[in-house]
Amino acid sequence: MGRHAGQSERGALADARALAWEILQRVEAEGAYADALLGHRLHESGLAPRDRALATRLVYGTLAWQGYLDHLLAAFSRRLPETLDLPIRTLLRLAMFQICLLTKIPPFAAVNTAVQLAKRFRSGAAAGLVNAVLRRAASGWWDVAFPSRDTDLAGFLSTRLAHPRWLVERWLVHYGEVETEALLRANNEPAPTVLRVNSVKVDRAHVIAEWQAGGVRAAPTRYSPVGISLDGAGTAPETLPGHETGWLTAQGEASQLVGFLVGPRPGDRVLDACAAPGGKTTHLAELMGDRGEVVALDIHARGLERLARSAQRLGLSIVRAQVADAMQWRIPTQAFDCVLIDAPCSGLGTLRQHPEVKWRRTPEDIRNLSTLQGQLLHRLSDAVRPGGVLVYSTCTLSRDENEAVLTAFLRERPAFTVDDPRPFLPEDARELVDGEGMLRTFPHRHGLDGFFAARLKRAATRALSPSGSG
What we know:
This protein is of the alpha/beta class. It contains 17 helices and twelve strands. It has helices spanning 9-30, 34-45, 49-64, 66-76, 86-101, 107-118, 127-138, 153-160, 165-187, 204-213, 253-262, 279-287, 301-313, 357-360, 363-380, 403-412, 443-446; strands at 193-197, 218-220, 227-230, 248-250, 269-272, 293-298, 319-323, 336-342, 384-394, 416-418, 439-441, 451-458. Helix 13 (301-313) links the parallel strand 6 (293-298) and strand 7 (319-323). Helix 1 runs parallel beside helix 3 (49-64) and helix 8 packs across helix 9 (165-187). The radius of gyration is 24 Å and the shape is globular.
């Protein structure tokens, strides 16, 4: 669908929008994730860095603001967006995002490009509709009415800041009006590209100095001592110096902190029970100086294949990948020093990099996931040796998946108690631990993805639970 580098600026912009339109259609039609699709398509597109950055911004921005854009479009169309053919619906959203939220793109350019793209669908049958709706919207979108903030706060925030109403209602109860609005706004901003330096091979200062000398804009992360933040969405991590030689891997800063919280030592035996695609697994191996053993368990074979390739590239020899369902896995006789359960979760803390998630999740998903999370904690706690460590982490802000799951587990398994994670965290990250001893990060407070993690210690001697197990 795209032309390659060396074309005119107008052609490059059209190609960036065409690629974004393709990704948006596939995300909605196939249930795919935008980040994976975008990375693959950008790699083969041949677009210049500036145009790659534009395509990235268009995809993430359109997905993040989808509910708001649909509300505006409904005011200028005789048909509701959900009743339109999927390609036209996503194209209208893409154009509206440019008209309303990207100040550097003139509205007429967004309209004209959308009309040209519409001609590729069913021989241009919908081009007239696209033209009419967008021209009306471009001349009056700012006058569209929203639910009243005074009488329907949840409705106003949900529509104006593009989040499902049920989620806004929950967050209003948990965080209040001011914090909820700040969180919603932060979720709609693009997440930075963050990499983790492989401490077994190189130190962060050396990498940053080398990149900056080569014109790559990079800076150390605030909380993680091995994180580097890239300035610019058009930079693909795999193209950076040192990637192929194992200096670095892509991993968000909050995710990096989980590895430190586990605190494995060289020579330890560690289980990462929900390991794919392997960011935390390889970080644990690096923290151990590649000495000991990390068993990486996951039900997805392709994810573990990716993990194995990453470990090989990073020069890590202690990772042992096993394809298995953790709920059915036969726990070895030899227990583990550390067990990490980075549990399957709703992902509601990662909406900056996975904005499509908020339009897919339902309250029923939360209930089902919290049940699974509790089952995983109970079963895999038996794999922790007496005196060993169990870490439970999620990338969600849902209390049903965080506090509720952990509280129920601790009540039923008295052999485990909350261990203060601060001695194991980098000094600058210790402020992220709350009064209950939990690591909590938020997009609007810390500029990080929303993570929850608890470090639990098993008693050195077995204590029986009410059910008779330790």
